[in-house]
Amino acid sequence: MSLENRITDIIVSRLNVKKEEVTNSASLKDDLGADSLDMVDLMMDLEDTFNLKISDEDGNKLQTVGSVVEFLKGKGIEA
Amino acid sequence: MSDKRVVVTGLGVFSPIGNTVSEAWENAVAGNSGIVRLSMIDPEPFTSQVAGQVKDFDPVELLGPRNARRNDRYTQLAMAAAEQAWADSGLSEASVDPERVGVIIGSGVGGMDTFEKQHNIAMNRGPGRISSLFVPMMISNMAAGQVAIDLNAKGPNFATVTACASSSHAIASSVDAIRLGRAEVMVTGGSEAPLTMMSVGGFCSMKALCTTFNDQPWKASRPFDRDRSGFVIAEGACIIVLEELSHAEARGAHIFAEISGIGMSCDAHHITAPAPGGEGCARAIRMAMDDAGMAVSDIDYVNAHGTSTQLNDINETDAIKVALGNHAKKIMVSSTKSTHGHMLGATGAMEIMLTSLALKNGLVPPTSTLENPGEGCDLDYVPKTAREADIQCALSSSLGFGGHNVCIALRKYKGDS
Known about the structure:
CATH superfamily of the largest domain in chain B: Thiolase/Chalcone synthase
Helix content of chain A: 55-70%
Oligomer: heterodimer
Number of domains of chain B: 2
Shape of chain B: globular
Number of helices of chain A: 4
Strand order of the largest sheet of chain B: 5-4-6-7-1-8-14-13-9-10
Largest sheet of chain A: none
Order of helices and strands of chain B: EHEEHHHEHHHEHEHEHEHEHEHHEEEE
Order of helices and strands of chain A: HHHH
Largest sheet of chain B: 10 strands, mixed
Number of strands of chain A: 0
Distance between the termini of chain A: 7 Å
CATH class of the largest domain in chain B: Alpha Beta
Radius of gyration of chain A: 11 Å
CATH architecture of the largest domain in chain B: 3-Layer(aba) Sandwich
Radius of gyration of chain B: 20 Å
Helix content of chain B: 25-40%
Number of helices of chain B: 14
Largest interface: A-B, 9 and 9 residues
């Protein structure tokens, strides 16, 4: 499964949104309805799935689906 | 004292005897048991293996996937019951200012399932993995908060936590709020989802639960019976819409009954055992009657707390005799826990709902499982079969661990009064 698909699955299950809504430019808060509590648990989901640590500082920068993809690629995660 | 009067104008319920008001009423009156072998969790490790469970409750379908994921079962049940009750009342933002609508919902143990699951995560993976939703899902006031969001109810809002008296305190506090003019409408009642390892195990350790009818669940909850051996733990929610009388009449609301008096007291005796002779409960009953302006001879029916424990049922019988004197022998007393079990923090609301319907329908629900009255249990408990009677004044008592006693006095609503 591609990195994008794995991230999409995590977001779909955490935020109860439709797959097609999870586009690269979608804002996690404004478009996909995440509140600050969802964001905390979403970061935990990403940490668990990709076995890495996301600092609060890094987490605060992850505002769109695309930024999550880029962040993980930057950590050397490809799929 | 305020001259404002308070009436019941909406009902909603998810319970072991039905997920609609009409279904729950019909089963209570017919004496159909909602008690089954415990299946929400593995029953084998527990001394008591029977429970009252809400059947066919699908929170995703009723509330949507996001609400289902972000709320503990006790809040989910409250949300679903509140939606029903609000629809039943016919109220809307067009008929009442949202700032004049309050919500008070009680729960005995709150989000126990959430607590247990997240505690497991913390023990296994460390506190850094506790969900950000743990606190909002677990706290016992979230049902009140979430229902207010759903209904856009911006008036007084809090939770009452007094074990098995929680929802009766919620209703009492809601009556106060309307009488004091703090709100026109109160959405109130209780919700409980205690079928988890810690709650069932905890009540088992107290020797509070029935252990002698694991193979015959429908017989397990038997208030006032010789063979009673403890209460049957149950889940569910019951939400009641209370409204100031003139407000309700002005909009032509359907009115189930009037809540005309409240009494509250404490045993100040022991953390779990009732005061000898039902002294504390008797004071709550007298206080409710005084508040309602009811004389002893006015009382037709007492909907008892009647838990099916040895101590409660004898002490409550004594309390009714102390409060009503010789009149106690002339009235009907029944415990509908014989069908729905003990819904803990939701049970008071459930019983006040059934008492409202008894007044409206002129039909008293039975103590369905009573076969042989226990020693000292010598009142008319309406055994097995419902009884038609044009009752005018009724009382409903709820007693909670901690020595909390609440009694609610209800009067039949007559359009011309």
